[in-house]
Design brief:
Blueprint lengths: L1 H34 L4 H23 L9 H28 L2 H8 L2 H11 L10 H22 L4 E2 L23 H31 L3 H23 L12 H28 L1 H5 L2 H15 L4 E2 H25 L1
Antiparallel strand pairs: 1-2
């Protein structure tokens, strides 16, 4: 019995850590696919298509009885989830990347826990309770986690000399998939778009929590969200990419990227995040986001020969401490 309790207690954090590990993996695959000239908006469309096929199959196998409960309200909530957590958030992030830089855009994404925290308090889904130990721990953990992400992103420090001498990128063929922009006006616009992307993701977590109450079928809700995301993402890709050859998939890194990022990066991660929101709330699911930055840096240094610096280590420590404090605060609330 004791072991079962421990396992049940560990399932939510392990699931959220797995989400961030998958994020790090498909982040590397994104780089490999764009290195081969693939359009990122088409990757977004394809990943939701692949996720839809897989999650519909799981829904048919495990939740066939849920189909009778699908109505206009559920479809509308799925549409909003697909928009906020899928096509809109992804495309806003990509456009922010164009107008700013990869470093700045990555730092902006780590504002999601703070935005989620504010939204959940405003909507009375979380208690501020700053006078209690639990409230102080959650607030402090959120601030430390975001601060660690900023240190991780903007402070370099000395270089950590460790390398596997593995680099999967082909330096001779790197298209300008994400052009640099140095104009001040564009940078401000890019920062604003990055802010909207974070707000979109935080709003998705809130909407997902509401959807889980009325339609608590995670396979089916994930399938519906991915379906909506695939439709929305395809419309955006069709409108912005006129080169039809970009849509061709072969037995190469393009197919591997869209299948992996679709089946695991969208299907499994959305399912796990939805489950985390259902059992622990939106704030819990969002607080692990900065950890993805740490995993991306580690994986990048192992297989892409990206440099790891002291700032990454310090920031990573702060991020882990922030997550621990929030989890500690949540556990205090339960007792």
């Amino acid at each position: 019995m004791g072991r079962n309790n421990i396992f049940n207690a560990l399932k939510p954090p392990l699931a959220m850590i797995l989400v961030q590990l998958i994020f790090a993996a498909f982040n590397v695959m994104y780089k490999l696919a764009t290195n081969e000239g693939m359009n990122l908006r088409i990757i977004i469309a394809y990943r939701f298509m692949f996720a839809t096929v897989v999650m519909v199959a799981f829904a048919v196998i495990f939740e066939r009885t849920s189909f009778a409960r699908i109505n206009l309200r559920v479809l509308f909530q799925a549409f909003i989830c697909g928009l906020l957590g899928g096509s809109l958030a992804q495309n806003l992030y990509l456009q922010s990347l164009v107008f700013t830089s990869a470093t700045f855009a990555s730092a902006m994404i780590n504002l999601v826990p703070a935005m989620t925290y504010i939204l959940t308090i405003c909507l009375k889904m979380e208690k501020l309770a700053i006078g209690t130990v639990a409230g102080k721990l959650k607030a402090l953990g959120t601030v430390i986690g975001i601060g660690g992400a900023m240190v991780f992103t903007f402070y370099r420090g000395i270089e950590i000399n460790w390398s596997t001498n593995v680099n999967l990128l082909h330096h001779h063929n790197q298209p300008d998939a994400v052009p640099k922009a140095h104009d001040t006006g564009n940078f401000i616009l890019g920062a604003f778009l990055g802010f909207l992307s974070c707000l979109s993701i935080a709003s998705w977590l809130i909407t997902q929590a509401w959807m889980n109450v009325r339609f608590p079928y995670l396979y089916s809700s994930t399938a519906l969200m991915c379906l909506m995301g695939s439709i929305q993402g395809s419309i955006v890709a069709f409108c912005t990419e006129k080169n039809w050859s970009q849509w061709k998939l072969g037995w190469d890194i393009r197919l591997m990227t869209v299948s992996f990022s679709g089946i695991l990066g969208s299907g499994l991660t959305i399912f796990l995040v939805s489950w985390g929101v259902q059992v622990k709330g939106p704030l819990y699911a969002s607080i692990f986001n900065p950890l993805g930055l740490v995993f991306v840096a580690i994986v990048g240094s192992l297989v892409l020969e990206e440099k790891l610096h002291l700032g990454s280590i310090i920031g990573g420590i702060f991020i882990v401490c922030g997550i621990y404090l929030v989890l500690w605060g949540k556990s205090k609330e339960m007792t």
